[in-house]
Sequence to fold (148 residues):
Amino acid sequence: MNNSSAIAALLPTEANHFKGRYALWLGLGFLLLGGLTTLVSLQAMLMNGRINGAIITGVITTVIGILCLIRPYFSLAPNRLTVYNLLGNAAKRYPFESFGHLTIEKSTLYIENGHESREKVKINRWMVKSADWKKLKQIAGSAISLRP
Fold:
């Protein structure tokens, strides 16, 4: 296998998009915080015999934690990058011509639009799972070598 076919094997296809996930610590942090808030609120409700409004905050925070663990943060296809919200709906799509238009500088992903302009992608490095950020960097770096 030559170098260009090895690089092409690394790149996502239309049938097999690369999905970047939220950082594990982020989902677990929300889950732990939400679970703890819910338990403390339940205990207060049982002791006082009244509804405690903090239980709503605890349940919402728990749901956010679960969604961070199961939903993708972004998806990379051959001609677009899609950023999702926590509910799984597409929040923003960034079209591009080829993977060679992706660049990462100082933990920020940019998409080159041609004519010396580029757009900053709204993906926070600290929210991305480390292995997924590493793979995104590999895709962006290897795609540069495929440019004509």
